[in-house]
Amino acid sequence: MDIFLQQLINGLTIGSLYALVALGYTMVYGVMKLINFAHGDLVAFSAYVGLTIFSQLFGASAVSFVNVIIIFLLTAIIVAFVGVLLERLAYRPLRTAPRLSAVVSALGAALVIQNGIMLIWGPNMQIFPADLLPSTTWNISGVIISFTQVCILALSAILMIALYFFINRTKIGTAIRATAIDQDAAKLMGINVNRIIMIIFVVGSMLGAIGGLFIGLYYRSLTFDMGWVYGLNAFIAAIIGGIGSIPGAMIGGLLLGLFNALIAGYISTEWAETFTFVLLIIILIVRPTGILGEKTAEKV
Amino acid sequence: MKLTRLASALALSAAVCTSVFAADTVKIGVQAPITGKYANEGQGIDNFVRLIVDEKNKEGGLLGKKIEVVTCDDEAKAQKAAVCAKKLVNEGVFAVIGSYTSGATEAAQTTYYRNKVLQTSDGTSDSLIKRKYWTFFRNSFPNSAQGEFTADYFVNQKKYQRIAILSDYSSYSDGLANSVVDSIEKLGGNIAFRGKIKSGTQNFTAILTKVKALNPDVIYYSGYYTDGGLLRVQQEQLGIKADFVGGDSNDNPDFLKLAGKSAEGVYLVNVPTPDILPYEAAKKYLTAYEERFNMKPPSIWAVVNADGLRAVMEGVEKTKSFDTKKISDYIRNDMKDFPGITGPFNIREDGERVGASLMVYQIQNDGSYKVSFNK
What we know:
The complex is a heterodimer.
Chain A: H1 2-32, H2 39-58, H3 65-91, H4 99-121, E1 126-127, E2 137-140, E3 143-146, H5 147-169, H6 171-181, H7 183-188, H8 193-219, E4 221-222, H9 226-241, H10 246-266, H11 272-286
Antiparallel strand pairs in A: 1-4, 2-3
Helix pairs in contact in A: 1-5, 1-8, 1-9, 1-10, 2-3, 2-4, 2-8, 2-9, 3-8, 5-6, 5-8, 6-8, 9-10, 10-11
Chain B: H1 2-24, E1 25-32, H2 39-58, E2 66-73, H3 78-91, E3 95-98, H4 102-114, E4 118-121, E5 136-138, H5 143-157, E6 163-167, H6 171-186, E7 191-196, H7 205-213, E8 218-221, H8 225-237, E9 243-246, H9 253-259, E10 267-270, H10 280-293, H11 300-319, H12 324-334, E11 338-340, E12 343-347, E13 353-354, E14 359-363, E15 369-374
Helix pairs in contact in B: 2-10, 2-11, 3-4, 5-6, 8-9, 11-12
Keywords (chain B): Amino-acid transport, Signal, Transport
InterPro entries (chain B): Leu-bd, Leu_Ile_Val-bd, Peripla_BP_I
Family (chain B): Belongs to the leucine-binding protein family.
């Protein structure tokens, strides 16, 4: 039993990370109907930014709670800025162009960010310091939970709930939902669509940045091409949950993490990835809009 | 008629030109992962080759010819390795040092063999010499030797009752783990678990939780340090109280950085580290390396590759020719106890290096190594 619970904890941890990254995908898709393939690499970029801020600002001094908060805030701000820049340079000029052009531009942006990371930080693996977060672990009748895991689970839960309320209960959230339904009508109602899209990129990039930093803190090793793995998994999570739906991205991420852990733990680690794709195919056949995706009738 | 004469005149002059160029320089190739996951190791190999070549050039070169080094980055990927092999052959190299990983080495082997280019690699996968190419010889020890040594250590020295074996999917790592498993079974040991991880996925908690349920005495990992360090950290986080033993490719300073405090107590199986090589040539070259690059070689692998290069040069000088067949014959049959940086260098008929010694180190709390078993 404790082994099963342990696998659940493992799965939920990685699942929360997928969910944080998937939110960025889903929000951009919801509003712009664009799959932002560069999002995964932005997540990798944020881990590198976090590491650099740490080594530049606090490399010598002792790590404290305040330092960690500063690292998170600075990273989120820098990555949000890059996210907005990405939208300006790669997506806005193509907003009225055919959908395929924007997808190609997204893939190009992903390559630019990935190679940019390689040029700035080099192709070698970079290593996150071990003592940024306390290495405390708790043993609850055989199930081990580490401080980092608790942080990941708690903070991503808080962020997701906050995002949910932001979208559903605030004025900006209403504007975002209106823009997602119909950009032209939103414009007629006096909504500044460009500003809404900027907000989407700021929020999505910040969530991705926190996800990326947690990936760095949890796994410690950074490679310039790591964004691809997380980007792909988060993309699958977004599709499973129903791309465009915010609760869907959260549920999709958690489900995918759990599914991966349980397959790896009980069937075969070698085949875990294959099963992920089998799950994706089944979802696409049975419920093409994903678990929480809404079926929209195309008006002719 | 006139046209053919013109063509033949052109061809003749071209031939004269190339032979004039060929007279002063000779090319040696380096095929190594200069970028990518194992960039650290690949750059070490390239550095060491350049160090030795520059020294040789200062002494007047090989048989009076200046040596030129041509490096090709294979990123430790088989596909890139095949492209590198073609590129280096087209460049006209007579010998190639590398690559670092067995997979990339194997992918390039046939091209070198068909073009009669010598190749020497630190790849330890047993499959590297199964084709018996005369162009290939190994400058490190094979997996099977390490497998037998590790099994003996586990079963006879440590008397482990339940052994968990992990590898990644690379031909090197999988091959090494399999030869450890075979040797343990021959000695009557008990393999409790044999599994594989996907290199680079970072999250190994699922498989480790599975291992935890079997309550093993030891977890042995035969892959590379990039994953080994993380496995060790996650093992401790999950509270698995087994020893951790890493195969030779875990022996890298980055293993310590990745594992942090968890590195303490880890055992590593490898040939002697560069620091404690007791040989005459080792002192000379390792000091020269440190002076020039302001760091130590990344690991023993750069050093064995340097030995491979030195053996090739020895072959050229002793046979007084660049005929690769003659050099290969000399290295295999006539070279006895060539004083390598990593000890006496002897190559068997099939291209296998013989007589390499192995050790087990334990990592201390300050990150230093202590020899814990030595045969």
